[in-house]
Design a protein that fits this description.
By secondary structure, the chain is α+β, with helices and mostly antiparallel strands. It has a single domain, classed as tt1808, chain A. The strands form four sheets. A six-stranded mixed beta sheet has the order 3-6-7-8-9-10, with helices on both faces. Strands 1-2 form a two-stranded antiparallel sheet. Strands 4-5 form a two-stranded antiparallel sheet. A hairpin with a 4-residue loop joins strand 11 and strand 12. The protein starts with 18 loop residues before the first helix and ends in a 6-residue tail after the last helix.
Length: 198
Amino acid sequence: MRPCYGFNMNQVLPTLMTVDEFLRWSVRQEQGRYELEGGRVVAMPAESYGHVKAKSRIEKALNAAIARSGLPYIAITDGMSVPIGAHRAYEPDALVLPLPEPSDDALSITNPVIVLEVLSQTPSSVRRDLTTKVAGYALVPSIQHYIVIDAAERLVLHYKRHGSVLVAPDEPTDGMLRLDPPGLEVPVIELLGPEPAA
C-alpha cells in the first residue's frame, strides 16, 4: 500500500480499509492527518495558526467547564479517531469523554459524549463538517452533542441528539452553551475568544 503523502483533501487511497486497518496504517504515517470515509482514506487539509489556536482555546474552555461541574469527564483536543461503524472514522478537533481515561496506547475513542469541529477555510471540509459528519456522528450512540464552531464568523452551532439523529439548531448559540447530558455549561465567549480589535 503506498503512502498518502502529497494527497489533497479530495484524494483517497485506492484500497478499502476497515477502521482497525486504518488505525494501524495511520500510526505508520510520518506526516499528515487522515480520516476514513466509506473505507477510503481521506487526507485532511493543512491547518492555519488560527485554527490551531481555536482548538487549544476550546479544549481549555471545555476542561474549565468540567472542573466547575465536578463531573467525571475530560476534554481532549484532536489526534484521536472516533470509529463510526466498520469503515468510517473521524478525527474531531476536540471531544469530551467520561473517565476513566483511555490507555496511553489507545488509537481511538469509542465513547465520546461531545464532539467539536472548527470550520476550516477549505470548502470541501466545510461541507463535510456540516453534512456528512452530522449524519456520521449521529451513528455513535454515546454522542449527545455535535458542536461546529466558525471562528471567522464567530458562530457556534449546537446539534443535539434526538433519538437516532443529531438535530440542527434553529440559530447559533449565544451566551451560554448548555450541554446536558452530561451537565456542562460553557460560555460561548470562552469558545470563540475575545472580539478582534476593530
